[in-house]
Structures are given as structure tokens and as C-alpha cells.
Amino acid sequence: VFPSLAQAQASVANEVYQELGQPSVFLFCPTEYCSSLCSPSPSQSCYLQTIGQELLPGISVIWTGPKVVSQELSAVLLEEVEAVLRRRPVIWDNLYANDYDCRRVFLGPYMGRAPGLLARLHGLLLNPNCELQANFIPIHTLGTWFQSELGGCAPPDRAGVEAVAALGDSQGAQGGSYSPQEALELALRDWVAEINQQALEPGG
Predict the structure, then answer these.
(1) Nearest CA to 155 among 145, 164, 167?
(2) What is the dihedral of CA 86, 90, 96, 102, to 10 degrees?
(3) Could you give the maximum distance between any two Cα atoms of the chain, in Å?
(4) By C-alpha distance, which of 195, 189, 187, 192 is closest to 108?
(5) Domains of the chain, CATH where assigned
(6) Could you give the angle at which helices 46-54 and 75-85 cross, rounded to 10 degrees?
(7) Which residue intervals define the domain GH84 in the entry (predicted)?
(8) Which one, of 144, 87, 167, lies nearest residue 121 by Cα?
């Protein structure tokens, strides 16, 4: 029925999106969702070019970066992806994911993401560790990174203001500067306080 996989996927996604009344959040994960899966590159991928052309503009596209698990995300790469998709991507960040190897757990701070990255994104999802308690530092330091990014960007919309308020004043770097080491120290301080509080509770 369709001349290509990309056209088939875009057609089905568009139809579902319209049938649901064009919701404000509708995510599409392409078959080529990182640079290493693109042939020969994101900007020259016939698949991504078709997705960018055919997918309705209100549909957001998920991207994981250079690889499935990306150590770094750069503004240059995101500009390339935005150009071919004709929209800013939603990053599905697998930095902490360990569902592919549960013997590994990354407990370090959110890092390897270029300053000013938020302006190039339509959204960011963090794929966590499988172990619930091991996600305190990842989520805490992501919050600090997010606050520092908003500090270096244009004034956020109302949703952004509320998100920052929910993080708490003590967690954020000011003025758009983010230090992974400082973020880690803030997270460890709050984590120890939470562990101590839980220890005092009945059955703790």
C-alpha cells in the first residue's frame, strides 16, 4: 500500500493523532531514533527526510542522540536533527538506563549535555535505572541542570516556571551555569538527609 516504511508510519501516526483530537502531547519514536541507526547520516537519511515531511507538525519526535546510550549531546547534532525532522526533537535520554545490563548502575550526576541545550529541545525524558532508589541522584541532578538551563535561556513559559518552583530554591545553579560536581554534592546532601529521615521513621 505504501512506497516506504517511513510513509506508512507517518500515515498511521497522523491518522491516530487526528482521531485522538490532536492532543498537546503525542510522541512518535522513529525506527532511526539515533545517529548510529541512520544511513548514512541523520541529514542524509531518506527515512528521516520522509518522516520530517509527512508527519503532522503537532507530533513530537523522540531522539536519543548520537547513540542509543549517548555519553554526550551537542547543539550541532540537535540542529542537524531539527533541520531534517522540521521540528525540535524530544530527547529520550538513556544516560542512566541499565535495563540492557542490570549489573551496571550509573550513580553520577547528569552530565555530558552542552550548555544551552534546552533551547534546542521540544522536551526531555530521562530513562531511569531499574533500581528505584538509585534514581535519586539522576533525577535530582537533572533538576539542577534544568534550573541552570532556564537561567541561561529566554524567560520560560508558565509551565516552566511552575516546574522550577517545584524543584525548590536550594537545588538550582544560578545564572545559567551548571557544574556536575556541585549538582552531585547538592544531591548527596539531600539524599543523606532523606535516608536519615527514613531511618527515624517507625520500621525505618
Answers:
(1) 164
(2) -90
(3) 64
(4) 187
(5) 5-153+177-200 (3.20.20.80)
(6) 60
(7) 1-150
(8) 87
pTM to 2 decimal places: 0.82
Quick one: DSSP state of residue 160? H
Length of the chain: 204
Q: What is the residue whose three cell numbers read 521513621?
A: 201
pLDDT tens across 138-196, in order? Answer: 999 999 999 999 886 544 444 443 443 343 333 444 446 899 999 999 999 999 999 99
At which residue does the C-alpha cell 508510519 appear? 9
Say which amino acid occupies 80: E
Nearest 10 degrees: Cα torsion 62, 68, 70, 75: -40
Q: What are phi and psi of 92, to 5 degrees?
A: -100, 95
Q: Which amino acid is at 128?
A: P
- From residue 104, give the alpha-carbon distance in Å to each of 1, 54, 107: 44, 39, 10
What DSSP string runs through 60-100? EEEE--SSSS-S-B-HHHHHHHHHHHTSPPEEEE-TT--TT
Report whether 90 contacts 55 (CB < 8 A).
no
The 10s digit of each residue's pLDDT in 38-54 is 989 999 999 999 999 99
One-letter amino acid of 135: N
What does the block give as the cell for 183? 549538582
